[in-house]
Amino acid sequence: MICLRLIDQNNWEECIKLKLKQEQQGFIASNLYSIAESKIFPHLKIKSIYFSEELVGFAMYGIDSDDGNYWIYRFMIDERFQGRGFGKSAMKLIIQDIANSNDCTDVIWLGYQPENEQGRRLYASVGFEEVGIAPWGEMLAKFSFPSGN
């Protein structure tokens, strides 16, 4: 069973040891950088992704101060656990967590490197639709909640 957990003094060091596959290394900032960033910008939520009692991934998301929408800024599954459906299950939990928040927005945005084909397939599988390339070079994708959410 996949679940999201807080990152705290008991698991932060394990989180920074998670790794992507070699060919994915340039797609995302390190988990150490993301954890540090969340301490400077407290509106960012950082979550560890567990399968049972085993840490398998990391995510960071929050409301962007520029556009007022939720953004998933970081999402990764450790190289040892990719290809098992953990990413899709975890992404669904993140969407649910945002939907259940008091400050839920109508949409969730994320950006990824255009050459990240594995990410593209994952995001599309949970309902993200590509909208085009951002000025900073990432592919932007939007998840829209059904009306009445």
From TrEMBL:
Q: Which GO-annotated molecular functions does the record name?
A: acyltransferase activity, transferring groups other than amino-acyl groups
Segments forming domain N-acetyltransferase: 2-146
**Record PROSITE patterns:** GNAT
Cite the Pfam families for this sequence. Acetyltransf_1
What's this protein's name? GNAT family N-acetyltransferase
